[in-house]
Specification:
The complex is a heterodimer of chains A (about 80) and B (about 425). Chain A has about 80 residues and is mainly alpha-helical. Chain A has one domain (about 10-65). Chain A has four helices and no strands. The radius of gyration of chain A is 11 Å and the shape is globular. The two termini of chain A are about 20 Å apart. In chain B, strands 8-7-11-9-10 form a five-stranded mixed β-sheet, sandwiched between helices. Chain B has a four-stranded parallel β-sheet with strand order 3-2-1-4, with helices on both faces. In chain B, helix 3 packs across helix 6, helix 6 crosses helix 9 (about 210-220) and helix 13 (about 325-340) runs antiparallel to helix 14 (about 345-365). In chain B, helix 7 (about 130-145) links the parallel strand 2 (about 120-125) and strand 3. Chain B starts with 18 loop residues before the first helix and ends with a helix. Chain B is globular. The longest helix of chain B has 18 residues, at about 345-365. Chain B has about 425 residues and is an alpha/beta fold. The chains are: A mainly alpha (about 80), B alpha/beta (about 425). The interface of A and B includes residues 33, 56, 63, 67 and 71 of A. Bound molecules: flavin mononucleotide (FMN) and iron/sulfur cluster. Iron/sulfur cluster (SF4) binds next to helix 14 and helix 16 of chain B.
């Protein structure tokens, strides 16, 4: 995990990913849900990381997340 | 009238995380029976049992399983729908919390019968504790050899994952639920193809309601003939009625189909109306079912009985409205609940709900004109006719039935003028 993953508990995220390895389309919704529940939102760096792991486009994941009331995401491309 | 506890007998009788407690009360007998049969025989048992879906649409479960089972090699999925979003409905939670191993057993039997190796249970977001319980339960099940590879020493393998709903009512609709598990926006679509043909990730998928699945262990343990001793010939078993609204004793009551009336349920189990007044109206099948008025309450508690009375059994959530409530206020509340829940795919649903909400607001505040009730009818009929999924096809029903049964309430509100 790179430098960018700041502002949240990287170790907690890594544990989550290990527990749910491999992260694929089959469990992505559940993993994102756990991220939401642990961090109170889905940090941008995590979307990026999960996009790489699953081979899905980041925009596709954002598009989904923002359509749910109970997911909180930072807007794409915002700082 | 009496309760028949086919599904709820064990609720509260054992520690929900204690598999031994479940087994001690006859649990896992259905799974053991199933694993000793060919998968087709299991499907046949469920087909002959006459079990129908308890999630609202009432589709025959055996046919659904058969359709998924007949597809050849490649992944298949089974989803237990625990999103329980329909207004007034709280029966699934009783089973999820009170007899969760029976649900797990039903999932295992369903997956074995249809050839699914991955199952999901999708739990309503508000049911936080239930979600936590299921996460623990799945670990226990793995440790006990009930999930994972070679279940109970058989050739059958199954993974089960628990997902939490994220605050959208429409996500309980099967295609929207599937989209959600694919990490997409929760949207419905036209059928066919049905989920059993092209479901999750384009693969054959069985979606079943919690209560439907809860019937399965009994059918396999005792056989379909024994199951059919309960309830009606063409609608066997029991139904778990969620009774709420203006009654003294709201709660979940399990009743053999055909063994009582709506009035009996309200009076004998519900203790009558809250204030002891007359009943204004009842929704017998959840917040999207048509209203019945006081004259229809002697209908039989079965899908057919309630249909004949002019509504539908839906999720068997009986919502009671006491006099002197105005139908305008009742409809307003319903539209507030469903108003923001359209997935947006079809205009007659997306815009129809909004327009109806605006009109009801106008009627309620005395600012409506004489044509507004006609507009409500027109919009409602258009949504029913032109909507893709059950949402748009049913949300207008309470509005249309209220106009029919309680037209004078609307007239009174229109004539009253602004406060
Ligand atoms: C708007 C809408 C919401 C629904 N919500 C639920 C729900 O929360 N739980 C459920 O089991 N079925 C729900 N359904 C029905 C499902 O689409 C599906 O028919 C059902 O889960 C199938 O299971 P069954 O055959 O066992 O009843 C909903 C349907 C619609 C149209
Ligand atoms: S009827 Fe409504 S909820 Fe159903 S698909 Fe159309 S817009 Fe979506």
């Amino acid at each position: 995990m790179s430098e960018e993953m700041r502002g949240f508990d990287v170790q907690a995220y890594e544990e989550l990913v290990t527990e749910n390895s491999p992260v694929t389309e089959e469990n992505l919704f559940i993993v994102l849900g756990k991220v939401q529940d642990i961090f109170g939102g889905v940090p941008r760096e995590i979307v990026r990381d999960l996009a790489v792991r699953t081979g899905l486009a980041e925009a596709r994941i954002y598009g989904a997340l923002t359509s749910y009331r109970d997911f909180k995401v930072q807007a794409e491309g915002r700082d | 009238m009496k309760e028949t506890k086919l599904l709820t007998e064990r609720v509260g009788k054992y520690d929900p995380l204690d598999l031994k407690g479940y087994e001690a009360s006859g649990g896992l007998e259905g799974l053991n029976q199933a694993l000793a049969m060919e998968a087709e025989e299991v499907v046949e048992q469920v087909r002959r049992s006459g079990l129908t879906g308890r999630g609202g649409a009432g589709f025959p479960t055996g046919s659904k399983w058969e359709s998924a089972a007949k597809h050849g090699p490649g992944p298949k999925y089974l989803i237990c729908n625990a999103d329980e979003g329909e207004l007034g409905t709280f029966k699934d939670r009783v089973l999820l919390d009170g007899d969760p191993w029976a649900i797990l057993e039903g999932i295992l039997i369903g997956a074995y019968a249809t050839g699914a190796e991955q199952a999901y249970i999708y739990i309503k977001g508000e049911y936080e504790d239930t979600f936590g319980l299921w996460e623990k339960l799945i670990e226990k099940a793995r440790d006990a050899g009930l999930l994972g590879a070679n279940i109970l020493g058989s050739e059958f393998s199954l993974q089960l994952s628990v997902a939490k709903g994220r605050g959208l009512y429409i996500a309980g609709e099967e295609f929207a639920l599937i989209a959600s598990l694919e990490t997409r926006r929760a949207m419905s679509r036209l059928k066919p193809p049905y989920p059993t043909e092209q479901g999750l990730f384009g693969r054959p998928t069985v979606v079943n309601n919690v209560e439907t699945i809860a019937n399965v262990p009994f059918i396999l343990a005792k056989g379909w003939r024994e199951y059919r001793r309960f309830g009606l010939e063409d609608d066997p078993g029991t139904r778990m009625f969620s009774l709420s609204g203006d009654v003294k004793r709201p709660g979940v009551y399990e009743i053999e189909t055909g063994s009582g009336t709506l009035r009996g349920l309200i009076d004998e189990f519900g203790g009558g109306t809250r204030e002891g007044g007359a009943i204004k109206a009842v929704q017998p099948g959840g917040g999207t079912s048509a209203f019945l008025d006081e004259t229809s309450l002697d209908c039989t508690l079965s899908a057919e009985g309630i249909r004949k009375a002019g509504s539908s059994i839906g999720t068997a959530a009986v919502i009671v409205y006491e006099q002197p409530k105005s139908a305008v206020g009742m409809v307003k509340k319903l539209l507030e609940y469903y108003g923001n829940e359209s997935c947006g795919r079809c205009a007659p649903c997306r815009l129809g709900i909004k327009r109806m909400q605006e009109i009801i607001e106008r009627v309620n505040s005395g600012r409506a004109d004489v044509d507004d009730t006609a507009r409500l009818r027109e919009i409602g009929r258009a949504a029913i006719r032109a909507s893709t999924c059950g949402m748009g096809q049913v949300f207008p029903l309470p509005v249309l039935s209220a106009l029919e049964l309680f037209g004078q309430d609307f007239e009174a509100a229109v004539n009253k003028g602004p406060a």
